[in-house]
Every structure is written in structure tokens, then in C-alpha cells.
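User: Quick sanity check before I run a bigger batch. Here is a single chain. Can you write out its predicted 3D structure?
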Amino acid sequence: QLTTSINVRSKEEVLNNKMVLEEIKNAEKTIKNMGRIMVRASGTEPKIRIMVEADTMELCKELTEKIVSKIRSEGLIDE
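Assistant: Done. Predicted structure follows.
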């Protein structure tokens, strides 16, 4: 299991972004029934939390990075 938090400009924009949602669905297809993915807004901070459970840590890292990269490419990260 790997959990990552990233600072974002708008939690709602991330969670409603079509391209980000598509990347999350692709990640879910990759792990099928062998794990799970949860992407949620922090309740107290301007952050998105990404949790990936998969058979290997390498796969967790790969899928997390794909989701983070998509959020970044959509211009939604507050760096």
C-alpha cells in the first residue's frame, strides 16, 4: 500500500476533471481485482490524497505517479 498527498489549487477541480478521472479508471483496470485505488480530498487541507493497494510496491508507485502526473499535466497542482 502507498499513500501520497499532493497540494492542489482546488480539490473540487481535481475530483471533477475528466482527464484525471480517466487516469484513475485506467489505473483501476490495471490492478483489476488485485488491489484498490482511492483518491479523495483532504477534509482540512488543500490536498488530494491518493492511496493505491496492489500486489507489489513497484506497481503502487507506478500507478500513483501516473495519477499525479495527470493532475500535474492538467495544471492543478499547487507547487
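Residues 57-73 form the longest helix (17 residues).

User: Great, the batch can go ahead then.
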